Protein 1
Amino acid sequence: MKLEKSFLLAIISLIVLSNISIVFASAQPIVTLNPVAPYPQSSVTVTADVTGIEATHVYIIVQECNGKTGICYPDEQNASMTQKTTNTYETTMTLKHNDATYIQYTLVVENNEGWTKYLNLTKAYLSEKPSDNGESSDTPGFEFIGLGFSIMFISFILYKRRR
């Protein structure tokens, strides 16, 4: 009899705990960046899929950071997102700092119950900005070696002709 009560109590506890975990497992929005790894000081389109969340307004807070120095810039961008479909919101923003190596963002959703933060300080790494100084990536100085050999060869030919 005691064994049956213990077994029954264990089953009831398992059912209650599984129901609690289902209640706490709420929908999480999905944020995508286009391009996935933008360059510093470039434009990036942010799309948020808020399926399962009754959203009336969606905002995204973006902060640029430099991972080499460990500094995040204090001028956060708080962008309102435009509703594209029933569950999809989108905005385009321009990153401000040339030496930023990653961004961190927080999605803020307003619904009938108030404001809720999702994906708090989620990191997205930036691509390194390509060199645009107009120089080639060849090692400088090697073209002077060819020029030196050419001058020596021409000098040798002129020397032989004079003799």
Note: Confidence is low (pLDDT under 50) at residues 20-25.
Protein 2
Amino acid sequence: MKKIIFFTTILFFFALNIFAAPSWVTDQGRRKTFPESEYISGLGTAFNEQTAKNKAAATISEYIKTEVSSSTKSRYSEVEKNGIVTEEKYLEDEVALISDSNLYALEYTETWKEEESGRYYCVAYIEKESAWKLVRQKLQKITLDVSNLLEGAEEDLSGFWKTLQYGEAVSYEKEFYSLLDFANLVNKTGSSEFAACAQKLQFAKTSLIQHKDTEKVFLKIQNDQNGIIYRALASYFEVNGFTVSNERGKYICNVLVTIEIRNDKSSFVCYPGLTLTVTDVFNTQIASYNTTVKKTVGFNKDSTVEKSYRALENTCAKIDWIK
């Protein structure tokens, strides 16, 4: 008899716990207030409120493949009145979308705490229409940039500049398709307007492959340290459609690394600089680039110089050439 009473008590508290949970927890956020036809939702749970919110946002970020940020002031909760649970959606101040097109507006429920486990639950939502407007702006910007680069490549007779522009166009590929995946999720019909951009990216990629073997660059570097600058520049040229050669090729990239070192009593201060000059086999200058980075400071000379080279290494990821 005691076992039956004990078992019945467990069932009672278990049932009580289920009914205590808001429906947006038990059904993973699929509520009539945020229908799936209009919203994308993500459930987050953790042992504190902020982490639960962060996890809810992270779930959504898996869909949109970019950073998610909450810009709206709206809140959603369930309120019990006279024994009836109703949904409430209200605003704090004015709802505004994020202007940065890298981010997407986010709405979320009030967090709910399960007392027995101590876990908090929160559901994050993105309104598909708002997300579409933002992702469309980003895709339109990429489309314009890619079109301009291809037009420039077709007008430029120099193989070096033509390859650079094809390479820069292809560099948009990953971001473009990531955004396009999300655009298909929120507005499959509307996203079809970017089919032409996809074709242009494919054309640029094919052009790079066809000319890669002929567009060879020889790196001639002064004052490198442990091959840091060589590897960074080799990676840059390879990514942008060139072949880095161990012997003189179609282009020669003359590289000068300067590290001005000053000893300030107890510390060392370094001022790093990088100069690039690209010439053809006839020693005619095609392009140049010059940059300096912020000074590096340290108590050890070798480690401070090393930091300077690493700082210059980072500048090699994107180079703004001058004709």
Note: Confidence is low (pLDDT under 50) at residues 1-18, 66-76, 87-103.
